Amino acid sequence: MDRLLAEIQARDDVLLEGRSTTLIGDLLDAVLSPVGDAIKQILEGASAIADGAVYKAPGALGSDASYGGADGSLLLSDELSRPDNRGLEPIGAQTLAWFNKYKQHGASMADLIQTATLTAVVSCPGGPRIRHFVGRKDNSRAGPTGKLPTPFQDAKSLIDLFTAKTFTASDLIALIGSHTASKQRFVDPGRAEIPQDSSPNVWNTKYYSETLSSDNKTILVFPSDRNLATYSSTKAQWNTFAGAGADAVWKPAFAAAYFRMSMLGVNNLNDLAECTKVLPLPR
Questions:
Q1: CATH of region 2-145+264-278
Q2: Chain centroid to CA 149
């Protein structure tokens, strides 16, 4: 980490139809800071991918609650012990160690979680470099329960769950593509470490096509994923991401939807500072 910080200090400082443009937090204020205006533009349709080498262009979720979201409570309360979060214990322990080391310099847990997430995405071959802002305030109050999706839900209830958090059905289909880098351990314990597509070490769209065609012998398809893939109002979007050359469409769509997710529950968006330069370049 110390070497990485030294490297960072040495650095120079396709929109999806149906994407949500709902404003959140203090972006509803009449007067915005320059950073607040930049975040507003991304939420309203500008690219969430950082200009750079390749492209030019989770706590308890919810804006449908008075608390929760990207506020650090995942690791500052007992949220991590909930069944929904099984499997996050190792990275949770590592992030807590980083927090204890660097909080004296003003790092918040909420920002560390987002930094780790965005670093993981762009470090995966093919992963996008999503614009990163810091300055979130921590909250040690555990987020509300019942706000996370399950791998057995029907499509309509999943869409309703995310709609309540300002996401459209298209946003949800874009977000779920992160299962491309997933290996399950608890949905089917007898097949622990089975991935959800055949290339879990590459950030690509095989997940979409293989969810449709898989016989579940070499990968594991969540019932909820198959439900979304075949649901009347989402199957067309799913098929678009499953098509040839879909990476160029899906990656900007995922970046936009995840950027929105990273801002849920953050009520001081006008006070944030851009920190994209700390992220690695795409691989």
A1: 1.10.520
A2: 14
